[in-house]
Specification:
181 residues; mainly alpha; membrane; transmembrane helix; Putative flippase GtrA; GtrA_CellWall_Glycosyl
Length: 181
């Protein structure tokens, strides 16, 4: 019976995390399909430049991903205003896009590999993969916070003191008291 108890304890600890990873992966797969199809359609169907086609496809895919992650993957997490979440989400998504564009730009302009295979490997395997790893980490850290954690200041990444909690100087935070900086 001991192995069953150990497995049950482990499952209890990781159940929420595994569910989030699975949902994030499902939403990500849908967004990746939009990204890959969109970038190829714009690049090879419409004839746009590689960086432009990737930037536009990522923007559309990010909208799909935001909606899926906000209302399904992390629906149980603390909510802030939708506008604030959307803004933070897209700011972090811009970093993910920059990662993908750096890979595409390096492949296209430095290595001078211009074919469809080189484009798809750089844009939709390496760039998308690295950007996805960054997005998963950053969304959990700054956008979709666990309900038990305090809100995070987007400028510092530190928890925002709530009423009655000590501030940076160790004094209780009071409503209406601003920084005297």
């Amino acid at each position: 019976m001991r192995p069953v108890r150990i497995l049950s304890t482990l499952w209890g600890r990781f159940e929420v995390a595994l569910a989030e990873v699975a949902k994030f992966g499902t939403v990500g797969a849908a967004a990746a399909a939009v990204d890959i199809a969109g970038s190829n359609l714009l690049r090879f169907g419409v004839g746009m430049e590689p960086l432009t086609s990737k930037a536009l496809s990522v923007t559309l895919a990010a909208t799909v991903a935001f909606l899926g992650n906000r209302f399904w993957t992390w629906r149980h997490r603390a909510r802030h205003s939708l506008a604030k979440e959307y803004l933070l989400y897209f700011a972090l998504n811009a970093v993910g896009l920059a990662i993908a564009l750096a890979v595409v730009g390096f492949t296209y302009y430095v290595l001078r590999l211009h074919g469809p295979l080189a484009y798809n490997l750089s844009a939709n395997v390496v760039g998308l993969g690295l950007g996805t790893l960054f997005r998963f980490w950053s969304y959990q850290r700054w956008v979709f916070l666990p309900p038990e954690l305090p809100p995070v200041d987007p400028h510092t990444g530190l928890p925002v003191p709530t009423e009655g909690e000590p501030d940076a100087e160790g004094e209780p935070e009071r409503a209406g008291r601003g920084s005297q900086g």
